[in-house]
Amino acid sequence: KVNDQFTEAHYNLGKSYEMKEMFDDAVQEYLKAIEQQPDFYQAYFNLASIYSKSESYKEAISTYQKFLKYKPSYPAAHFELGKIYLKIENSDIAFKHFSKSLKLDRNYVPARIALGNIYFMRGSYDKAEESYQQVLTLDPDNFTTHNNLGLIYLQYKNKPSQAVYYFQKSLKINPSQPHAKSIMEKIKNILNN
Asked: What is the Cα–Cα distance from 138 to 32, expressed in whole angstroms?
């Protein structure tokens, strides 16, 4: 009320609204911050995130691209774009963004997992395996990646003992994971055959 031109205040108010899941209000505050300071890249990133959550993918893509004009070396933005392109079923462009994210930071685990998932979906199991192994080098407690490796060894590589190893490792890391019961069944079936 005292100073409507205080850009940082609009941005912070937007963040507060976003944290309270008042997304329409957050969008308005981020837009005000951007209007007052067109190179306010943090506001673009947060705004794009809201658009993505609300499934306004066209706006999200456009806003992430504006963010990248100011911060082209930010791996998380490429990763987020990749996720959106996967949601709109364009795995080729998603793959490019995940790869770009890894080019900027080869230890960026979410992008490495995403690439492994794309390889898996495409039936490139050797490349998926390689990508997942790299994930475990960086994040050995990633139980989902252990599960994915277990599936590759069980269903596509005919290495049941390797599958059991990764399934058991996953359950040890997170025994209450959503698929725990089905993983235990897989282990039981492998050991009984």
From this structure: 40
- 113 neighbors 120 (Cβ within 8 angstroms): no
- The model's pLDDT over 71-115, given as tens digits with 9 standing for 90+, comes to 999 999 999 999 999 999 999 999 999 999 999 999 999 999 999
- CA 27/CA 11 separation, integer angstroms: 10
Residues 6+ apart with CB under 8 A from 26: 14, 15, 17, 18, 46, 50
Whole-angstrom distance, CA of residue 159 vs CA of residue 167: 12
pTM given for the model: 0.86
| DSSP character string of 129-159 | HHHHHHHHHH-TT-HHHHHHHHHIIIIIS--
In the block, residue with structure tokens 């008042």: 22
